[in-house]
Amino acid sequence: MTNLIFPHIEPLGDGAVLVRFGKKLDESANKKAIRFADILKEYSLPGVSEIASGLVSVLVRYDGCKVGYFELAGELRLALCSLIEGGPEYVGKTHDI
To answer: How far apart are CA 89 and CA 91, in angstroms?
Structure first.
């Protein structure tokens, strides 16, 4: 786990993803993890069954029959934009036309 760029998205088996905001506990990484978990809970990402924040990471459990890892990782990258001031507010929302 050396030379990782944070936040870092990594698969945990075939049904979970871990989003890391740091290697060790610090206030900034902790606040980002908590805020990111809150952001994800506001959106209904397809196939996601659980969102749990840790000290410097967020665990996202998902149903692999409903969403694949790469699709979910893309949605998580978009949601990470919400942590940046002025990030898109439409992340994770769908609009029927």
So the answer is: 6
